[in-house]
Write a structure and sequence with these properties.
279 residues, Rossmann fold, four-stranded parallel sheet, 13% strand
């Protein structure tokens, strides 16, 4: 339940791991991140704890709860028209001296996210199958590296939603493909393209990719809320949706983990999705 972490997702793990590698002079320069979701809050929080100035480049369509959370942790926000322009703005700020903390294209960020796998293996040393969401791919490659090192037989399933499936589209084409737009409601999976780093290690370490529909993710989200009283976001509930598709191949002897990577859902979004589902 990474949705219960500080800031509501796994993102502080990678942010802290990257920031702790910076020298004193680099910390003094300040850092810049790009995010319309959980990385914004994770980097803002880690920067605040470590006393580093942080600037987050965000699409103007970023939901208010993410904006308020990021500002609440003391970061400065620069808005851009879309995620593509947000990356361009971050590159400009990097050229001015800020240190870029990429949301996924950084081995140190990925390694920080991989600490989740170490904790899972401590609890479930006989883990056989795990479902992990893919946005840009930093989470899954960091975790997969740790999981496969411990036991190459663990079956790792990467999960995306249709319209935020940059990794699956790229794997099908056997090259990195940039999505023209993110059309899924799972905004925190909304990287327009993966990186050579995450593409290569996903190809090496991840056994299977599953792309589910938004409606499946919403149904799974509502099920989790009603049955466990835990509110997660569609970028997390999609893992349950994927596991449901695999119900006939999961054996009674399997030890299965569904990673709930985040829970930053606004009340307005929850009401909108619930209304859409019921209609």
């Amino acid at each position: 339940m990474e949705s219960l972490q500080k800031t509501g997702s796994f993102k502080p793990r990678g942010a802290f791991n990257r920031l702790l590698t910076l020298s004193a002079s680099e910390r003094a320069q300040g850092v810049v991140g790009v995010s319309g979701g959980n990385h914004a809050q994770g980097l803002a929080y880690a920067s605040k704890v470590l006393g580093i100035d942080a600037t987050i480049c965000m699409p103007s369509s970023t939901p208010a709860n993410y904006v308020q959370g990021t500002l609440g942790y003391g970061a400065e926000i620069v808005f851009a028209e879309n995620i593509h322009e947000a990356f361009q703005e971050a590159n400009r700020l990097q050229e001015k001296g800020l240190i870029l903390v990429h949301p996924f294209d950084d081995p140190m960020v990925a390694a920080g996210q991989g600490t989740i796998a170490l904790e899972i293996l401590k609890d479930l040393p006989n883990l056989t199958r795990i479902y992990i969401s893919i946005g840009g791919g930093g989470l899954i490659v960091g975790m997969a590296a740790a999981l496969k090192a411990a036991n190459p037989g663990i079956h790792i399933v990467g999960v995306e939603t249709r319209g935020a499936d940059a990794m699956a589209v790229s794997m099908a084409a056997d090259k990195i493909v940039e999505l023209s737009a993110i059309t899924s409601i799972a905004r925190t999976l909304g990287s327009p393209k993966v990186s050579p780093f995450t593409f290569e290690y996903t190809k090496r370490l991840v056994d299977e990719l599953v792309v589910v529909e938004d409606d499946e993710a919403i149904d799974a989200m509502v099920y989790i809320l009603e049955r466990t009283k835990m509110l997660v976001e569609p970028a997390a509930s999609c893992c349950l949706a994927a596991a449901r598709r695999h119900a006939n191949v999961i054996s009674p002897n399997d030890q299965v983990v569904l990673l709930m990577c985040g829970g930053n859902v606004s009340v307005s979004d929850l009401a909108l999705w619930s209304s859409s589902r019921s209609s």
